[in-house]
Amino acid sequence: MQRTALVCGAGGFIGGHLVKRLKAEGFWVRGVDLKEQEYGVSAADDFVLGDLREQSTIREVINIQFDEVYQLAADMGGAGYIFTGENDANVMHNSASINLNVVDQCHKLGIKRVFYSSSACMYPEHNQLDPNNPNCAEDSAYPANPDSEYGWEKLFSERLYLAYNRNFDMECRIARYHNIFGPEGTWDGGKEKAPAAICRKVAVAQDGGTIDVWGDGLQTRSFLYIDECVEGTIKLLRSDFEGPVNIGSEEMISINNLANMAISISGKSLKINNIAGPEGVRGRNSDNRLIMDRLGWAPNQSLRTGIEKTYHWIAAELMRKHSQAA
Q1: Cis ω before 299 (30° cut-off from 0)
Q2: Is the pTM of this model over 0.85?
Q3: Least C-beta-crowded within 10 Å: which of 109, 156, 275, 323?
Q4: What is residue 198's three-state secondary structure?
Q5: Residue 203: phi, psi to the nearest 5?
Q6: Are 215 and 93 in contact (CB under 8 A)?
Q7: Strand locations in 23-147 (E)
Q8: What pLDDT, on a 0 to 100 scale, did the predictor assign at position 87?
Q9: How is the chain split into domains, by residue range?
Q10: What radius of gyration do the chain's Cα atoms show?
Q11: Mean pLDDT, to the nearest integer, of 201-208?
């Protein structure tokens, strides 16, 4: 019998790649999202345009015994969306509503295996003040002190899925994603994340010009390429380990050095102009000791390789956009 999977948030960046991977494995896949995929057509067998905050949508899409459910749907974006404070109420209400609906409907239908995508944004701000020595080990989550309401909602929803495991014998699996990037992700419009935003700025800039980088550029992050994220996600859901566990890279880099990497890939001569803007915590890096111990998983692709692929894809998208407008 053909295996079945549901991907919530299938119109998004990670969800779209996950659908393609599940289809390649032979699954029948239903996708659901408020929007269709931005780049290309979804590979899902059945794609439902629907709002997972609404009970009617939940009953429509979670109506069979799926073998696997992936809950990636959330109200989210990059620093320009999350850290201004202007979207806090929507972020918390929308994402919490989705998670409450999804896990409860799965419970009612007897679906056991549900993957939930949490975020490294739930880690305490006080452990991420030193850009060179952040502490993002899984057991550092408490006492809780995320630096954004987005992080607080992620922490609440982690506890929600774990409570359903304890009280209803479910087998939910929780990953804390660390800055996933790659082709087919949002690269403009205000919700893009740092790698895509920087690649876009470099691609647009004239040789000999400048690009703007928010903050002093000394803040650090690690970034995980999309294919590796999908691999870690599937491996976790099919394991006997509930998490929460980090899915990320341990290759930490400053934002200025990330910009210099993209500049080097472009072959242009550009200078960085550090300007005021939302930055988030000073330092963040995935701690992969637990996932290596429990699942034997670690990413194997360098950051530069992933940035090369992403830069060239965004440059091609800009060229395509320009030719369409001409």
Answers
A1: no
A2: yes
A3: 323
A4: helix
A5: -65, -35
A6: no
A7: 28-33, 46-49, 68-71, 114-119
A8: 86
A9: 4-180+224-247, 183-222+251-281+302-325
A10: 19
A11: 94
Q: Do domains 4-180+224-247 and 183-222+251-281+302-325 have the same CATH topology?
A: no
Query: Which of the 8 DSSP states describes residue 221?
Result: E
What sections of the chain are H helices per DSSP?
13-24, 55-61, 79-82, 88-109, 149-168, 194-204, 226-237, 255-266, 289-295, 303-325
β-pairing, 253-254 vs 220-221, is antiparallel
Residue type, 286: S
4-180+224-247 to CATH, choices 3.40.1080.10, 3.40.430.10, 1.10.1200.10, 3.40.50.720: 3.40.50.720
- CA distance readout (Å), 75 to 108, 149, 197, 290: 25, 11, 19, 28
- pLDDT for 217-256, tens place per residue? 999 999 999 999 999 999 999 999 999 999 999 999 999 9
Q: Is 233 helix (H, G, I), strand (E, B) or coil?
A: helix
What mean pLDDT do residues 277-300 have? 93
> Can you say whether the dihedral through the CA atoms of 70, 110, 100, 121 is positive or negative?
negative
Output b/e per residue, 198-209; b: 16+ Cβ within 10 A: bbbbbbebeeee
- The answer to whether 90 and 75 have CB atoms below 8 angstroms apart is yes
> Does 123 participate in catalysis according to the annotation?
no
Q: Which of 123, 150, 164, 177 is catalytic?
A: 150
- H or E, element range at 50: none
Spelled out in words, what is the top-level CATH class assigned to the domain 183-222+251-281+302-325?
A: alpha beta
Long-range contacts of 99-103 (CB under 8 A, 24+ apart): 99/71, 99/157, 99/160, 99/161, 100/160, 101/52, 101/53, 101/55, 101/58, 102/8, 102/52, 102/58, 102/62, 102/69, 102/71, 102/73, 103/71, 103/160, 103/161, 103/164, 103/170, 103/172
